[in-house]
Every structure is written in C-alpha cells, then in structure tokens.
Amino acid sequence: MTTARTGIDSSHPHVGVTSTFVGMPKFPVAARAELANTTQRRNLAHATGIIRDKRADVVGELDNWEELRLAAEAIKNRTLRHLDTYLEEFERNATAAGATVHWARDAEEANRIVIDLVRETGSDEVVKVKSMATQEIELNEALAEAGIDAWETDLAELIVQLGDDWPSHILVPAIHRNRSEVREIFLRRMKEVGRPAPDDLTDDPKRLAEAARLHLREKFLRAKVGISGANFAVADTGSLVVVESEGNGRMCLTLPETLISVVGIEKVLPTWADLEVFLQVLPRSSTGERENPYTSIWTGVTPGDGPQNVHIVLLDNNRTNVLADEVGRAALRCIRCSACLNVCPVYERAGGHAYGSVYPGPIGAILTPQLRGTGSKVDQSLPFASSLCGACFDVCPVRIPIPDLLVHLRTRVVDEHRGGRPTPESAAMKGMQWLFGSHRRLEAAQKAATTSHRFFGRRKTIGAIPGPMAGWSSARDTPVPPAESFRDWWKRERGDGTTSGPAGTDEGTRR
C-alpha cells in the first residue's frame, strides 16, 4: 500500500496518514493555527515580496500592459460564451492529429479514465508534470489506491511530495518551506523511493537542485507513462501548451511512450494567435519574467518523435455549473498565475493550507466554493477569507473582479444556509418600509428616539449595541439620538408649515 502523495510504503514509520480536505475546519479556525507558525510566516513574507517586486519591474516595462489585460479578458470572455463550440473544434483537430480525446464529467470519471489508460500500458508508475487539475481531482491518491506510483517531477512538488505535505501556493507549492527544511526532507526521504541524496548535502540551492536532478533522472529514463495538465488548449490546431521554468515538464512530455493530459475545459483558447497575448501576461504575472524559460507545445502524435500514444482528458468537474452563473463564471478566466496570492495580505499571513483547497488565496476563495459547493464549513467560510482590499483585481492579468465575486458568493452562502429565514438585512428593510409608509409612524419613531436622549446624559456615542448590530457597532461610533428631531425643530422655527424657496419666488408655497 502506498500513500497518495509519495508512493512510499505506508508501513514505513515516518509515513503519516494521507491528508485530505475532508473535515477541514473553517478558514478562521485554520488560519488562527497557521498564524502561530512563525517560520512559515517569515518564509511567505520573504518569497511573496520577491515575486511582487519582480512582477512590478517587468510589468512596468510595458506601455500597453492594461491593453494586454483587456485583450486577455476579452479573449476569455468570448471563449466562455461559446465554450461548447470551441471544445468541439479542439476535439476534432486534436483527434485529426492523432490524439485520443476523452470527456470526464467529474473527478471520479477522470481518475477512472487515467487509471485504465495506465493499466493498458502494463506500467505501475508514472512521472508527472506539475498540474493543478490533477491535484483538484486527487489523481495521485486514486493512482495509489490502484497500485500505481505517481512521481512528481516539478522541484517544488517533489519537495511537497517527499515531505508528505500539501501544496500551499499555485506557482510555488513549497513556498512555506525554507532551504534547511528542504535539505532535511531530501536527506530523510529520497533514499526511500530512489536515488538517495548525497550524505554531504548542504542547503545551498545549487546542491539541492543537483540532488533533485539526479534523483529524478532515473525516473525520467525508465518511465513509460507521463501525466500532465495544460496551461492552454488551442481549438483551431488541437494543440496543448505547457509553460514551466525548470525543464522537468519537458522531460515528462517527450520521453515516455504514453502521454496523458488532464485539462480543465476552461483552458481552451479559440486560435493560435490568441497565445500571443497570454504568453506575455502569464510569465510576467506569475514568475516576474518576460517569458517563461520552457514553452512546450504538442499537437497529437508525430511518428517517431515523442510519445506515440497521446490522450487528452477534458475535465468538467462542475465547471459547467460555474459557467451558468453570470457573475461567478468570471472565475473561469483564471490562468493560474498566482499573482493574486502574492499581493493578498490575508494569504501572506495565513498561508495556503488554511484554505483547505488546492486553490488557495483570493482565486481559491471564489473558485473552490463554486467547484465544490458550500456544503462544508471550510467552503462556506472561504468567500469571507478576504479584506476586500482589491489588490487582487489590480494585478490579475485577465481582470477577474475577485472582490465583486467574493461579495456575490457571500450572499449565496448566507441565502443557502439561513434555513428559509429572511436575512437580517431583509427584515430590517421590511421594517423600514413599514415605518416610512406612514408619516404618523415615522413621527412616533422620531419622538421615541428623541425621548431616549435623556438616558445617555452627556455621552456623545451609544457604544456597542447588543444583538445583530454588535458587529457593526463595535467598529463604529454610533451617535446618541438628538434631543430634538428635524421635524420638531422645523415646527418650532417655522410654525407656518411652509418651505422657503429662492428669494423673490413663491416656490416654497407651491411645494
């Protein structure tokens, strides 16, 4: 039996129970625990600060950055409006190029398709390109249950896997780890699953990268099956695109005999020309680079070159439900750059694990509750895991209005879980409607309010109000009711009941 994250024998004394997001506490509870991890907070502040600065530098070089954002937004919006058309076009062109396209309604179906394809090859292991989609469907766990070892080859994913950990960042999954922790993980775990780390390994980044390269090389050379996701799927050519920084992905995409790509249906782009926009905004927003070091593009099968069995699994997994929400569908524009995480003050302090999802940070707070629903405490709490400062929208390369979607989803959570009772706001509005519906009721309420003035003595503010208004009043100075209402003042000052218009007119009388 192997654990889902590592493929390591679960009987080993150092191997813990595989983590899942089931039963995770709601965000405020999880965040409070993560805040106590001072090492993680220091690691996050350092790493996100560096990425923020790099992004700002390369974005500042472009005079047309906002035009690129608008173009990316427009392309994604057009794609989502006609998603069925572009997906069918992609299937036709990919099939014509020699690939086999599979459709998966949910995670269970996608995992079953992948497992069956791996078993057909007779292999009991796969090498993997970093993929958010496969993490979303928990493919590694499903493969492990089927007796298939899944080896992560991205350096950060390797660190997470060997550490029996979960990713905490979309771009840099091991952002919560420092070099000393990585060295300890390599020394302790590499020998259990392959080539061991050198005994004299230090925490120098070059030495750590070399240890990872040697450890992974033997897996690359023997693997018969590679599994990937895709950053983009181009409809008019049937091509898939993976961008990366290390080259490990290219090894997975070119060396194995069989390549299986799990691709969310929202990753499709209409035309080859559309890539020009996204290959500018993605690297600048994610790694702070003008262009990513490795861009791998493949179209079906090329005889004698690369994998000869190419499979593409198009994954829905509730994406069509998100698409049906005219407001919420904007989340499907996401290109997984992680720029919103790097500027979010909540993420920087709480870290990614507190979100209880493979999609942490602001984008996770709006995407996860739509993909998973709001049946659990953690999913109900995610739309509230934000200060609504708006920094996430400012940096988003496809202009997702994340603050607006957070408010939208907060409303949905409240509406879905109030048990048929009207919201306090709705009840208050109905009460105000009744009050303002009669001048006599309004006069009586004003009289009662002014009468209560004497109970406050010389105080200027009421202070905290108990009950439903406690949260509102605790952050605001609520003034005491006036000693005299405007209506009473008017009667006292202008007892004739008329209003005065501009000098020399009878406008006041007409009113």
UniProtKB/TrEMBL annotation:
4Fe-4S ferredoxin-type domain residues: 331-400
Region Disordered, residue ranges: 467-511
Basic and acidic residues composition-biased segments: 485-496
Classification via Gene3D superfamilies: Alpha-helical ferredoxin, NagB/RpiA/CoA transferase-like
InterPro entries (alphabetical): 4Fe4S_Fe-S-bd, 4Fe4S_Fe_S_CS, FTHF_cligase-like_sf, Helical_ferredxn, LUD_dom, LutB/LldF, LutB_C, NagB/RpiA_transferase-like
Residue span(s) of domain LUD: 87-314
Keywords of this entry: 4Fe-4S, Electron transport, Iron, Iron-sulfur, Metal-binding, Repeat, Transport
Gene Ontology MF term list: 4 iron, 4 sulfur cluster binding; metal ion binding
Biological-process GO terms, alphabetical: lactate metabolic process
Lactate utilization protein B C-terminal domain ranges (all copies): 412-493
PROSITE patterns for this protein: 4FE4S_FER_1 (PS00198)
Protein name according to UniProt: Putative iron-sulfur protein
Species whose genome carries this gene: Gordonia rhizosphera NBRC 16068
